[in-house]
Write a structure and sequence with these properties.
The chain has 188 residues and is mainly β. The protein has 2 helices and 9 strands, in the order E-E-H-E-E-E-H-E-E-E-E.
């Protein structure tokens, strides 16, 4: 049909591993799909444009904080919106700046290849880490990439993605959480 142009589609997955700091063993892991927001599509497009121009995008985009939330904080069903409205994120301790060098495009080496779903064409990966002793709760279930600059995410703050129902148990004080958000882009 003349005048209609198909847009790229984005699909997201969140993958996490819990590592026992005493033994180095993986003591928990999981994966779940997540919602990509309209604001997220814009940010993903900008990051991919930088990546194709320079190989790896610098983390200069606004969306460079990964926020965790807990079941006990969630006021209801997650909102499929562009902002932190109805999701259980609201504690400073649950925030982590995206790890150095992220987001990455089509990562194929190191822990990115073995612990994420990266490695395919047009996959952009964000990664964040919470050390042992940080945000040690048994009911972590919400994840969103959000804007930097706020001590606690505000309800109207833009988000790139959202996933709930992860059921991460980081309790005990000895687990490091490493989390990857992978966005795959399918071009028409």
């Amino acid at each position: 049909m003349a005048g209609i142009k198909e847009q790229p589609r984005a699909r997201g997955t969140i993958r996490y591993v819990l590592i026992d700091e005493r033994t180095g063993d993986i003591v928990g892991e999981g994966q779940r799909e997540n919602i990509i927001t309209d604001a997220g599509i814009t940010d993903i497009a900008e990051a991919m444009a930088r990546a194709y121009g320079s190989g790896t995008p610098a983390v200069t985009n606004v969306m460079n904080v990964v926020a965790l939330g807990r079941t006990s904080l969630s006021p209801g069903a997650p909102a499929a919106s562009n902002t932190l409205n109805n999701i259980g994120i609201g504690e400073t301790a649950g925030l982590a700046t995206v790890d150095s060098g992220y987001p990455k495009l089509n990562a194929t080496t190191g822990d990115d290849a073995s612990n994420s779903t990266s490695g395919g064409a047009d996959i952009l990966t964000w990664r964040a880490t919470w050390a042992a002793g940080t945000y040690d709760y048994a009911d972590i279930d919400d994840v969103a990439i959000t804007e930097s600059g706020a001590a606690i995410p505000a309800s109207g703050q833009s988000i790139l993605n959202h996933s709930d129902g992860l059921a991460i148990d980081k309790s005990g004080g000895n687990k490091t959480l490493r989390l990857w958000v992978n966005i795959s882009i399918t071009r028409p």
